[in-house]
Specification:
This protein has about 325 residues and is mostly helical. About 75% of the residues lie in helices and about 0% in strands.
Length: about 325
């Protein structure tokens, strides 16, 4: 079992989380640029491969090499890698077809799907409040995707509809990953979960070679290597942020990615947010924040209940 190693430093926790979110969006922008020249599976290979040295150095510095390299549930890591790698392939493919801010907004459906899957797979009860928050968020996703669901010639030719559906499918798979990781943390160290995901993603992405890998241009190669290094650093920062602050406090800062995506999309790809995207994203963020708030309240209630029933000392 992993021993808790935390300090309450909210300022450092928030800073780490915001930097991590920004770096993840930079990684997405690099992949979006590279995906014009290489297939998604090949991009996943380079992104995962070049994240591994960064993660390995981090584990060595923390003295967690053994915890990171010795899994207790190898099959669990394979399944986590399969779900996560599939989500990454779909995300990268979608990034090549729709604007970065739009892909980011659709990706916010993950918490909604997580609540639904937790009820179906873990037996968690969904009260009216959380169900309403999920419905609000999913309405927002539909609004964002609405322009992509039309059957006009321009939409069909551009592949935008396919791109939007790929990103939505990736959001569903990421929710499945979160449910799976909830089970894994009972027996697996965080270091092992982080390291083996990069390892399995690198290995599984090789299965996409028959689907058209190409020799990358120098520019595409540098972008993919950069994405791997930046993604590795971002993963370390987001993991480290939870050492200094509670997950419920940090979760809302995930939505800062929409601001970063809008800036990067406009500067590097001339992508301006649309009215549909802004309105839909607002509803999705609102639904997500409500879910986070409710989870925090439930956590506080459970803590009070445990404290009330705990044996009292003489």
């Amino acid at each position: 079992m992993e021993k808790p190693h935390t300090e309450h430093r909210p300022g450092r926790a928030i800073a780490f989380k915001l930097i991590a979110v920004f770096l993840f969006m930079c990684m997405a922008a690099m992949i979006k640029a590279a995906i014009q020249d290489v297939p998604p599976g090949e991009a996943v290979f380079f992104r995962s491969l070049f994240a591994m040295p960064v993660i390995f150095v981090w584990l060595w510095q923390r003295g967690e090499i053994r915890e990171g390299l010795v899994p207790n549930n190898f099959v669990g890591h394979v399944w986590r890698g399969l779900f996560g790698t599939s989500a990454m392939i779909l995300t990268f493919g979608g990034l090549g077809l729709i604007p970065l801010p739009e892909a980011t907004a659709i990706g916010y459906a993950t918490p909604m799907f997580t609540v639904i899957l937790a009820a179906l797979m873990l037996g968690e009860k969904i009260r009216v409040f959380r169900l309403s928050a999920v419905a609000l968020g999913l309405i927002g996703v539909i609004i964002v995707m609405a322009p992509r669901l039309s059957l006009d010639a321009e939409t069909m030719t551009s592949g935008a509809s396919i791109g939007a559906m790929m990103v939505l499918g990736a959001a569903l798979l990421r929710a499945l990953v979160q449910i799976h990781v909830r089970k894994m943390v009972a027996s697996e160290h965080t270091a092992a979960i982080v390291f083996y995901f990069s390892l399995t993603a690198t290995t599984l992405s090789l299965l996409t070679i028959p689907f058209g890998w190409v020799w990358p241009t120098q520019n595409a190669l540098m972008l993919m290597i950069g994405a791997g290094l930046v993604g590795g650093v971002a993963q370390i920062l987001v993991t480290s942020s939870y050492r200094f602050g509670a997950a419920s406090m940090l979760a809302p800062f995930d939505y800062s990615s929409l601001i970063f995506a809008a800036i990067l999309g406009y500067v590097f790809f001339a992508e301006a947010p649309t009215l549909n995207m802004a309105l839909g994203a607002g509803l999705v963020v609102a639904g997500g924040v409500l879910i986070i708030w409710r989870e925090r309240q439930l956590g506080m209630d459970r803590a009070k209940s445990r404290a009330a029933t705990a044996p009292k000392g003489e």
